[in-house]
Write a structure and sequence with these properties.
The chain is mostly helical. It is built from 25 helices and no strands. The chain has two domains: 380 residues, Up-down Bundle (Growth Hormone, Chain: A); 50 residues.
Amino acid sequence: MTSEEPQRSGFGGRFAAPVLIGPALNPINTTMISVALVPISQATGAPASVVIWLVAGLYLVSAIFQPTMGKLADLFGPRKVYITGLAIAGLGGLIPLISPTFTGALVSRLAIGIGTSSAYPSAMTLIKDQSLRLGVETPQILLSGLSISSLVTAAIGPVLGGVLIEHFGWQSIFLVNVPFALVAIVLVCLWLPADSTRVAGSSPRPAGIRALDLPGIACFAIAVTSALFFLLDPGGRLYWLVPIAIAAAVILVLWELRQPAPFLDVRMLAHNAALTRTYLRLFLVYMCIYLVVYAFTQWVQAVAGLSSEAAGLMQLPAAICAAVATVLVSRSSRVRWPLVIAAGTPILGGMLLATVHADSPLWLLLVVVALFGIPQGLASVSNQAALYRQAPGAQMGSAAGLSRTSVQIGAIVASSLIGRIFGPSASDPGLHVIAWIIVIIAVAALILTLADRALRDGDRAPATTQGR
């Protein structure tokens, strides 16, 4: 498709701009905080073991609300869900100005996590709806652009966060959400089609509040919250949450099997093994990425003695490599080999990270960081392309939300491991343990990717307007 064809087919700049800008908010918030943990701890007096909840808290609410917002978008329309979420995120960014405390920062992060959870599943649903509305194939460049938007902002998050903190204080990384959300809301209102124009049959029709499946959402929230609180408890005292998580998960499955329009379509996931493997692949690869993002930035500040701004700038090689990798695969419909490389590269990166110590030369640190930018670019674009082919069209919002939940859970598990391994402070031995954990996880991701026959079939099948 030429550069003029998306415009003529209804996927031009006026449609693309608001679709692409909103999903950038969640990833930029998830990575900006990585260079703010030490400054916030110093400013508020909260210890490192408590401050890590600024990371985990956003991931926790995002893990729950991404599929919830996707379900809402499927049922009630993506445009209105998108706008509501952006408004919540913008208001959440104001809280640390009113309450410059750790509690204020945590409440702000939770609000931002809930609000930004609407963007990605709404954007994917908007794209699918537009494709059905116009009866044309979705341009590959638009799907790639959605990945690029999220990826680039995630990669520059530590850099931007470091600069903002250095010059405007730690509250500025929260306040930046306000203008961002306002611009996105204006563009959505001006340029995106109204929900009333959705094609009949593109989504299940709501039948009152029961269509939302509140019991299913509640069971899902209890299962995820219990499991993640257990994982994030460094002392292991919350072991009693494990049976609660298991019981909630069992009840969730039994309940959803009886629902005509379930929140979590268990039957679809069981029968759509390719989509389930995509979720697992996202979990494994992004766990590797976030182990580096959070562990390395803490290490260079606590052990190497760098400032927040310098720690953020250290992430530039990752941003550059991620951008290059994204551009290289953005116009291709092939997904298998990009995903193989995305799974394999962290093996080399982890081995190099295991050699790093306080006196390591700067070039080695930059090489390690750069290597982990490659899987960021490749995994984002190619897994999204796989998901767009594999997910049922009428459940695109829910499916897209679950893909982000996979990423968020990977990040939470990474945070839990870092907290348990680093303890009170980052260290060389702790960083080396994390490095070998990355290698093990990456090997598992590589085996899963190589063995996935659906990826080979997908390389021969173009994306369609209907999904599966």
